[in-house]
């Protein structure tokens, strides 16, 4: 841990500069009360990448995580509110105006280390020990002063069995909290990421056939307004909640709700451009229909060339894999949409709305999951990302419909 | 339920197939909602509209000044687009029914949300 600080002080200093700039941006946005969308979007983009990266375990991954952490934050954080904002604003602006050397070392920062240990590592170290080691190393390396009450900077460390995260939090509330959502279902950042993947075009007809409280549609409608959105659900209470959410967000005119079942959609075949859905899982939801009939119906209503982005549990994926194993994809018969076409689609570098440099390990494990996801009839998997939903993991799968389903 | 939505809904009763469209609309409570006019969006929706179904529904609701079909160069005709905007997006059916033209099955509309759920016997196998 000491090595982390001492070996590479440069990246720490760089990180602090980024943090300061972001803080400044964040404050400016707050003060001018602009729409927080650009910032949110940037953070949202890294959401997906970081979620993937959390799978990797090595300590040397920390630096990557750290940089991502600065632009996006996963755990709760600290942001001074109210009158302190102006004071800090002045302080920050002052600081940035200092000469190159002074601002490069950031020697006037006060800081606090917050540490959390879980899993096996918690048995070897206590959070306080880790915190202390870190704190002392930081003080020695950079000359910062510790201030437990009101530090400028909070360094947050989380050690668990799967990953080690070192980060500097930006905000007090989770990134996913939205002013315009009354009752949230799926985490807003995940919903937004799904909408991103879905390639929503202006004038499209976008359907969420299991919309629940409408979180995905809300996120999509906020970002892509010139689109026709329809949400369907079987539950009255969910639809009522969705209605409330729509009203609170002022999106009642953009999103229509219908009471319908995802396995019997009251829509003509090939009438929908895009489907985005969080398929319920877990013991809480009793899914009468199985995943195959759900996908079948989605496939039916989707236009050829249409996109479906689905959030699936491990369980769903397993069932789909079994299904894929037994039936040979019909596209083999259709010539141009046969094997070569499928291989193209399986290339993870393909059309994606999220253009970020991807580390080799990310591409490799992505390819892995992709290889394991078979096509479903004419729905061909294009991208697949593992996402952490807190207690469980899920897979965000993007499918494209290549041609009509066979007889 | 907006008329744009009605234009998409079809009946899924067993054996009905494509004859389950369009659904016959009956409304007992209708509201006019002002919606911000977005000419681009309306222009993009025009090609998707099933005109016969729209005219039928508009007729039931006694709407006036309903264009019979898309006119040449509609993308730039603001008057046309405004009329379509009003019909497709500003007319809201709050209470009423939708009827499957083939089977006669009624789907209720309540608080603006059409209930399209079928019972087990009615669904296709």
Mind telling me the CATH class of chain B? Mainly Beta
Number of strands of chain A: 11
What structural class do the secondary elements of chain B suggest? alpha+beta
Largest sheet of chain A: 7 strands, mixed
CATH architecture term of chain B: Single Sheet
Question: Could you tell me how far the N terminus lies from the C terminus of chain B, measured between alpha carbons in angstroms?
Answer: 29 Å
Arithmetic mean pLDDT of chain A:
68
Uncertain ranges of chain B? none
Number of strands of chain B: 4
Tally the helices of chain B.
4
Tell me the fraction of residues in β-strands of chain B, as a range.
15-25%
Overall helicity of chain B: 25-40%
Walk across the major sheet of chain B and give the strand order.
1-2-3-4
Which fold name is given in CATH as the topology of chain B? Answer: N-terminal domain of TfIIb
What's the gyration radius of chain A in Å?
Answer: 24 Å
